[in-house]
Amino acid sequence: MSIKLVILKSGENIISDVKELLSDNKVCWYLFTKPHVVELEKNFLLVEENQSPKGDVNVILSPWIVLAKDSQIPVPIDWVVTILDPIESLKEMYEEKVNGENS
Question: 26 lies in which domain range?
């Protein structure tokens, strides 16, 4: 399994197992297995003018296409802006979530 963080043209951050689909030895599609949207929820406290803002960031993972029956979704390469390795805590969070789901 190759867990990647993918940024799409739409601005969505997707975490998924990603594989390349080839045609004539050229990548034409990416296959996302159990893709989830990565959303950040920022909580900040109001502070006085001379203080730094205090707060934290919560990460929320939700299925990318909620109403889809398929767990594998092909995505054309021209919709992908970049593919990155996620930080370890995000990768672990994703693996715990998808391994806990019914396949």
Answer: 3-87
Query: Is 98 within the bounds of a domain?
Result: no
The Cα 31–Cα 33 span in angstroms is 6
> CA distances (Å), 86 to each of 21, 25, 53, in order?
21, 27, 26
- Tens digits of residue pLDDT in 53-97: 666 778 999 999 999 999 999 999 999 999 999 999 999 999 999
Please tell me the total count of domains within the chain. Answer: 1
Amino acid found at 3: I
| Cβ-based neighbours of 97, under 8 Å, separated by 6 or more | 36, 61
Per the domain annotation, does 58 fall within a domain? yes
Question: Counting Cβ atoms within 10 Å, is residue 66 exposed (0-12), middle (13-18) or buried (19+)?
Answer: exposed
pTM over the 0.85 mark: no
